[in-house]
Write a structure and sequence with these properties.
Elements: E1 2-12, E2 18-28, E3 31-36, E4 47-50, E5 55-58, E6 60-65, H1 85-99, H2 102-118, E7 121-128, H3 137-148, E8 151-158, H4 165-187, E9 194-196, E10 198-200, H5 208-221, E11 225-229, H6 233-243, H7 247-253, E12 262-265, H8 271-279, E13 283-286, H9 288-293, E14 308-310, H10 319-332, H11 339-353, E15 372-375, H12 388-394, E16 401-406, E17 409-413, E18 416-417, H13 422-442
Parallel strand pairs: 1-4, 1-5, 6-7, 7-8, 8-9, 8-10, 10-11, 11-12, 12-13, 13-14
Antiparallel strand pairs: 1-2, 2-3, 5-15, 15-16, 16-17, 17-18
Helix pairs in contact: 1-13, 2-3, 2-13, 4-5, 10-11, 11-12
């Protein structure tokens, strides 16, 4: 299928930032064929979109999500004190993830995918845990992504916090199983929208044997590791207490640092650790909304991270909002970063996507995948390459997202979904959420094993 977007402003958000006025974009199948002024006049297209007054940007990437949080919005459960990160995890998130079953995870995936698309997020890098539904869980998330048409990468975060080493073995097996499933589908020539990573919850819930298994699964599957690190001080102290080493040194000892690795939060990493993860080319996902919500702090080393990207840590998929909050938090902390730095961080995530999905991402150029957002943004001041990042932070928002194309398919057009029935999915999700909340409410925070090493 050939789709033409005519007479539109092209905003290249990746380096170098460019603004091309009155351009035509020709999409052939899942790929951009060409971009330029007046090039579509002689093209026979299956669909023509009038882009007059519109702006097209490359689709956005959420660098760290938790799809299992999809039905947690305004969750009503009886929770105890939540005065530090561990209490928040035990009283809220770890009760939710133990309550998940196949149905609730499937609708969580559908809801998160719809949320992503309508906010212009075309790819979600997800980190998952559901200790009472491990086997097959990644395939359920992938099903929700692929049915709605969103692109993704998923990992199971291994942990021993509920059932000890059995839980770790089951999590590792699920990660390997899903990676093999993806590889098998690709070998058959199938179009795979959701790929796999290996994953770990956090170093303080992974003993040495678990780390060895995680490293082995990464080698077996030729994937990188997606893991939380130093979100709170507890993770750092725990690793110092039990292993007498910094977190990143521990991961390095197990061979888990590479340019396919995704480290998350990193609030309490030290300068040596930042230098090491930079040397290894690791990606680092900053999640400002979640960090502020959990009151865990802010890293002064964020400006030093080479492969800095942005995630939400399960706070939806709105990357316009995340970039704004990241910028304002940096300003509040008297940091040195400017709007253009956050535009780079959003675009940089495409480099990680390219390590898992075939093709080129993040530019509106010939040969790149057609993951595009069409925005209805009326700029009241001049918009050129030199100030485009300022328009993104100060003017644009998810409210501007009018249409979204992923893999060449227009999944959201004129503020409406084209492939799925949003109203039907949300109605069913509401009923599923009630059952999920009831199960979560019946679980106590002390239900975790409290395993000691």
């Amino acid at each position: 299928m050939v789709t033409v977007i005519k007479n539109v402003r092209v905003f290249q958000t990746g380096e170098p930032v460019e603004i091309i006025e009155n351009a035509d974009i020709i999409v052939d199948g899942d790929t951009i064929r060409s971009v330029g002024k007046g090039i579509a006049s002689s093209v026979k297209a299956d669909k023509v979109i009038d882009g007059t007054g519109k702006t097209v940007i490359p689709g956005l990437v959420c660098g760290h999500h938790h799809y299992y949080s999809g039905l947690s919005r305004a969750m009503m459960i009886s929770a105890g004190p939540q005065t530090d990160l561990i209490q928040i995890l035990k009283e809220w998130w770890w009760r939710l993830d133990r309550a998940l079953d196949e149905e609730s995870l499937y609708y969580s995936s559908l809801v998160c995918s719809l949320d992503a698309i309508k906010n212009g997020t075309t790819c979600n890098i997800d980190h998952h845990e559901s200790p009472n539904f491990i086997k097959g869980s990644l395939s359920v998330i992938a099903k929700g992504m692929e049915e709605t048409g969103v692109r993704g990468i998923v990992a199971y975060g291994i942990t021993d916090r509920n059932y000890g080493m059995k839980e770790i073995r089951d999590g590792v097996e699920e990660g390997i199983r899903f990676a093999k499933e993806v590889d098998s589908r690709r070998a058959k020539g199938e179009n795979v929208l959701c790929d796999a990573m290996t994953g770990g919850h956090a170093p303080f819930t992974i003993p040495e044997e678990g780390m060895e298994m995680l490293a082995d699964s990464a080698k077996q599957t030729n994937r990188g590791c997606h893991i939380h690190v130093a979100e709170g001080e507890y993770d750092v102290v725990w690793n110092h207490h039990f292993y007498n080493e910094d977190i990143i040194d521990r991961l390095e000892r197990h061979g888990l640092l590479s340019d396919k690795t995704l480290l998350v939060h990193g609030i309490y990493l030290n300068e040596h650790e930042i230098d090491l993860l930079n040397e290894r080319g690791c990606y680092f996902a900053h999640n400002p909304r979640s960090n502020m919500n959990n009151e865990v702090g802010y890293s002064k080393f964020i400006p030093e991270v080479k492969n800095l990207i942005l995630g939400t840590d399960g706070c939806g998929s709105n990357m316009f909002e995340e970039a704004k909050i990241a910028f304002f938090k940096n300003r509040d902390a008297k940091g040195p970063l400017w709007p253009g730095d956050y535009l780079k961080a959003l675009s940089r995530a495409n480099g990680l996507v390219e390590k898992y999905h075939s093709g080129k991402f993040g530019r509106i150029e010939a040969g790149y995948k057609a993951d595009l957002d069409i925005l209805s943004y009326r700029n009241p001041t001049p918009m050129v390459a030199g100030n485009a990042a300022g328009h993104f932070i100060w003017g644009m928002s998810s409210n501007c997202v009018e249409s979204v194309m992923i893999n060449g398919e227009l999944l959201y057009e004129n503020y409406r979904f084209t492939r799925v029935d949003e109203q039907e999915i949300y109605a069913k999700a509401t009923e599923v959420a009630k059952k999920l909340w009831k199960r979560a409410d019946s679980l106590s925070a002390s239900g975790t094993s409290g395993i000691k090493r």
